[in-house]
Write a structure and sequence with these properties.
134 residues, 7 strands
Length: 134
């Protein structure tokens, strides 16, 4: 799977990342298998999706537009997105020390919620990280 780095978020000042909250696990869509005529299952692939909410604040219109455009481009090209692990850990909500590389997320456009707050913009993004079982 191809990956797109969200440079628009990675280059933000630390105070603009309000937080990254862990929302739990989605297990309902996490199995693909084939079944032989005898009823025996084979080629089993199992996974779970960890759900997160990333909140951004005090964004200018240009920053908010760039973030949304990069997410649209990733979705259109069927790419996973990555956001700097250090930036996400900075706020203390997420412990990603056990992840060796940068986290990879799937995003749906309907899960991006921009909101204007007087002079600035806020964006709330719901993202999913797929973890495969062996």
């Amino acid at each position: 799977m191809q990956v797109q780095t969200l440079t628009s978020i990675n280059k933000l000042s630390k105070y603009k990342v309000k937080g990254c909250k862990y929302d739990g696990i989605n297990e309902k869509d996490g199995t693909i298998y084939q079944q032989a005529e005898s009823g025996e299952e084979f080629n089993i692939v199992r996974w779970i999706e960890h759900l997160y909410t990333i909140s951004l604040q005090y964004l200018t219109f240009a920053e908010a537009e760039e973030i949304i455009n990069q997410c649209l481009e990733a979705k259109r090209n069927r790419k996973l997105i990555t956001i700097s692990k250090d930036l996400l850990e900075e706020k203390g909500y997420v412990d990603m020390k056990t992840i060796k590389s940068e986290p990879l997320f799937k995003i749906d456009i309907k899960d991006i919620k921009p909101k204007q707050n007087k002079r600035f913009y806020e964006i709330t993004m719901k993202v999913k990280e797929r973890v495969d079982y062996l």
